[in-house]
Design a protein that fits this description.
single chain, 512 residues, alpha/beta, eight-stranded parallel β-barrel, six-stranded antiparallel β-sheet, 27 strands, globular
Length: 512
């Protein structure tokens, strides 16, 4: 009797343990919309070593260059097909006066970057240099205009300078500065963080200001503008409500949202590389809060825009930690670990799953700042784990969104828990299905079985990004410690797709 009871207890424990580490997934037929490639956008501010000593380098630096644009960086970003690049800020945008950055470089006035380190900039990287960079990248520019310290006229004339193809003072000035044809820039941000560094405005005051600025930002022939409202920070739902209530839908293409994953507190954000599992868990919980933020801001937008004409644009997101020891605190230089890659994969899954409303997003930032894709040190350059996530996920660009239903085991810490697994899926123009899976549990592998409704497929291949520890990073001495590798842990089993996700891993599967 005792042996029978022991056997039953063992069987129950085995079944319970298996259930704790097993996920089930249902992928439904095609939805009525695509995952916009613009969700995979990037952000480059005049901050630290992002522009100067990132994209724009000393002429004496021994790297491939066009003018002073660093071409190994350009080639790396072209590989992941970055769809847009936001510039010049950020907080910097609302102290930037674009006319200081055009014309002969030796005649451009210098300026103090009061937001980031108090450094003096020579304005050698301005409008023409940025748009040449975008042309080299094959990406769409997203220009943030100065509302905080600028004027309606200043933005209106910048739009004219960039977009008008007729005879006017601004088009003549553009031609005088060496660019005959207009660039026809579509994406325009009307201010940045107007609730804070962009002017400390109230929502109602900013809404009125936006209407003025938007009125005089003209659509020139062949260059219709996609104007983006300076939206809310984090949980400021009143800002979104006020914006949607007071700005006519026809005056805006999108409304922005900013949210950063801060492991500890704003005053002490935590280390990028030295953290406990408890801190890791808290960080991941904060990362996943993006889902509820998008849902709640979208619900407010739905009240005024039920047809979803206006995009939610998450144009600043990512992990923000303390700077690396010994670096300028105003430069926001931080290392990039496997933890950061897991944040990137999870956040992009959230955006994909809300791609009926989220049509654009920009990671902060591209080079040497915050959750960077690329780090540089003189001639050296490395690709961070976050870069590799964007490389893996480029299969979702403009693909048909496939709704998912996931039942995930919990990852627990004390009395708190979060889903171990998150996922998104799409089908590209060739009919191939791509499933991006993230296992946040740093110690447990997760088995997952997937049912695909009305999807015919014969074979599965995969790629994986993982490492031994969530604190692992790529360094200039070991730049490929974390890299994409082939994944062999998925197979077809009857009509089911089954896979085993290693701990702390990002896996992208392709079904054909």
């Amino acid at each position: 009797m005792k042996k029978k009871l022991s056997f039953l207890l063992l069987m129950c424990w085995t079944v319970a343990t298996q259930a704790q580490h097993t996920a089930s997934l249902v992928i439904q037929p095609k939805s009525d919309h695509q995952i916009s490639r613009h969700i995979y956008g990037h952000f480059s501010e005049h901050l630290g070593r992002c522009i100067y000593d990132g994209f724009w380098v000393d002429p004496a630096l021994n790297v491939p260059k066009k003018d002073r644009i660093r071409l190994d960086v350009v080639d790396a970003l072209k590989k992941i097909r970055i769809p847009n690049l936001r510039w010049p800020g950020g907080c910097f945008a609302d102290e930037y006066h674009w006319r200081d950055g055009i014309g002969p470089r030796d005649q451009r006035p210098k300026m103090v970057n009061t937001n980031w380190g108090g450094v003096t900039e020579d304005n050698s990287f301005g409008t023409h240099e940025f748009l040449e960079l975008c042309e080299l990248l094959g990406t769409e520019p997203y220009v943030s205009a100065n509302v905080g310290s600028g004027t309606v006229e200043e933005m209106a004339k910048w739009v004219e300078y960039l977009n008008f193809d007729g005879i006017s003072p601004m088009s003549a000035l553009r031609k005088q500065n060496g660019h005959e044809a207009p660039w026809k820039v579509s994406f325009w941000g009307v201010g940045n963080e107007s609730w804070g560094c962009g002017g400390n405005m109230t929502a109602a005051y900013y809404a009125d200001q936006y209407r003025r600025y938007a009125t005089y930002a003209r659509n020139y022939p062949g260059a219709p503008l996609k104007k983006i409202v300076s939206g809310a920070s984090d949980y400021d739902f009143n800002w979104t409500e006020t914006i949607m209530k007071n700005i006519p839908l026809g005056q805006m293409w999108g409304v922005s949202l900013h949210y950063y994953t801060v492991p500890l507190t704003w005053n002490n954000k935590g280390s990028a590389t030295n953290f406990s599992e408890k801190e890791y868990f808290t960080t991941m919980k904060k990362c996943l809060a993006m889902d509820s933020l998008v849902i709640k801001h979208s619900a407010i937008m739905d009240k005024y825009d039920p047809k979803k004409r206006v995009a939610l644009v998450v144009d600043e997101w990512g992990i923000w930690t303390n700077v690396e020891p010994g670096t300028n605190p105003g430069f926001l230089y931080q290392q990039n670990s496997l933890r950061d890659a897991l944040i990137a994969g999870s956040t992009l899954n959230i955006f994909n799953n809300h791609s009926d409303r989220v049509k654009m997003a920009e990671l902060a930032q591209t080079i040497n700042v915050l959750q960077a894709l690329i780090l540089t040190e003189k001639e050296k350059m490395l690709l961070t784990p976050t870069y590799h996530v964007f490389d893996l996920y480029k299969v979702h660009h403009d693909a048909q969104y496939l709704p998912v239903q996931l039942n995930s085991p919990a990852y627990t810490s004390g009395d708190e828990k979060i889903p171990s697994v998150n996922v998104s899926a799409s089908q590209d123009s060739t009919g191939a299905v791509h499933i991006s899976l993230v296992n946040l549990n740093p110690t447990q592998k997760i088995s997952i079985s997937t049912s695909l409704q009305d999807v015919k497929w014969k074979a599965v291949t995969g790629q994986i990004l993982t490492s031994g520890k969530v604190t692992d990073v790529n360094t200039f001495q070991q730049p490929d410690k974390i890299r994409i590798e082939k994944f062999n842990g998925a197979k077809k089993q009857g009509d089911q797709l089954v896979a085993e996700l290693p701990p702390a891993s990002i896996v992208v599967l392709e079904l054909k």
